[in-house]
Design brief:
CATH superfamily of the largest domain: NAD(P)-binding Rossmann-like Domain
CATH class of the largest domain: Alpha Beta
Number of helices: 18
Structural class: alpha/beta
Helix content: 40-55%
Number of domains: 2
Length: 357
């Protein structure tokens, strides 16, 4: 039986731990899913100490690698796994355990994540009537200082959510609004997917600072990795994303506007707005080149936007160069492994978007 008091959180990374602790602090019965027993065992107990904009000690109800147990009875299932793993690992494990009436939200879906996740659920035998949705960005800016000690630097305002089936969008938005301030319903998952700012802010600064990351140098990501030069390239890269959306008849904010809408950031350039954002001030860069800032954001952001651009006849030269440079540096075919033409029918997607315009 589904309970309005139970929420499941999928993933024990920075986002998962922050989400589970935050929801527990709000008084919800919160169950946290880890993919392996080793991830469960890293928690000494179920107590979490929250830092940042939310302070306090709370206790989650369950930490388990049993997907069936974690999502049983949960009215809301928050998937915080990096997007490239969601369809590959989470959907197959979840598919047969979902029940009618549950809501599954990808936090975030990145670009076309909800489409890929939906197909994976069906492929692996999901027959439940659920509401599947995605946000356009993760609601927190957060890190874990250590296991069980999440630090939430900021709770973003104006986070958009949309469901695969548009009739479910308001129900999901209402549910999330009970938990977070400023949740907004989006017109479609194309709107949330093409509002993917992570693909702009994350991979290119890593690639342009790759030797520092490789050397495990400790430096601030936004404050030190994004110089005026890097920010200027990000602006041009972001213009390509916005142009792809425009060719589909979709209006999305550029990164400059997005910074003000989400954080109230000030400044006359993207560089100034990034560097004036308090939530970014203490965020450190990864110390391993095998970071989700590259893999997640290229595979599930740059690749599908590039594919959409090609299908629409919109040039994405900088986005394409990011994909190619990463492929060269990592000796890994990001296009072949990403959300590409073999995984999504981009022509059909474009036709449906234009038909609904």
């Amino acid at each position: 039986m589904i309970s309005r008091k139970k929420i499941a959180v999928i993933s024990t990374g920075n986002g998962g731990q922050s989400m589970a602790a935050y929801l527990s602090a709000l008084g919800y019965e919160t169950a946290l899913y880890a993919r392996e027993q080793e991830r469960v065992d890293m928690f000494v107990d179920r107590k979490f100490e929250l830092h940042g904009v939310v302070e306090g000690i709370c206790e989650v109800s369950m930490i388990s690698c049993s997907m069936a147990d974690v999502i049983e009875g949960a009215y809301l299932i928050m998937v915080t796994t990096p997007a490239q793993y969601a369809a590959k690992a989470v959907a197959p494990a979840m598919a047969k355990h979902l029940r009618d009436g549950q809501m599954v939200v990808l936090n975030p879906g990145r670009t076309l994540g909800a489409h890929v996740f939906h197909h994976a659920l069906l492929k692996h035998g999901c027959t439940a009537d659920i509401a599947l949705a995605e946000t356009d960005t993760f609601v927190f800016t957060c890190r874990c200082l250590s296991v069980g000690h999440p630090n939430i630097y900021a709770i973003k305002s104006g986070v958009n959510v949309a469901a695969i089936d548009q009739k479910d969008t308001m129900r999901v938005a209402d549910a999330l609004s009970d938990l977070f301030p400023g949740i907004l319903p989006a017109e479609s998952v194309l709107h949330t997917g093409l509002s993917n700012i992570g693909m702009i802010f994350h991979p290119l600064p890593i690639l342009m600072n790759i030797t520092r990351v490789e050397a495990k140098e400790e430096f601030l990501f936004y404050a030190n990795a994004i110089s005026p030069l890097v920010a200027s390239v990000l602006e041009r890269m972001d213009a390509e994303r916005v142009s792809v959306a425009k060719a589909l008849g979709i209006t999305v904010p550029d990164a400059f506007t997005w910074m003000h809408e989400r954080y109230g950031s000030k400044g006359d350039s993207l560089y100034e707005r990034i560097h004036s954002t308090k939530a970014y001030a203490n965020v450190f860069a990864p110390t391993d080149i095998d970071t989700r800032y590259v893999y997640e954001d290229i595979l599930t952001g740059c690749v599908p936007v590039s594919c959409l651009g090609k299908a629409l006849g919109v040039e994405t030269k900088i986005i394409d160069s990011v994909i190619q440079f990463a492929t060269t540096v990592y000796d890994y075919d990001f296009h072949a492994e990403g959300t590409n033409e073999k995984k999504v029918d981009f022509r059909a997607l474009i036709e449906n978007a234009h038909a609904g315009a």
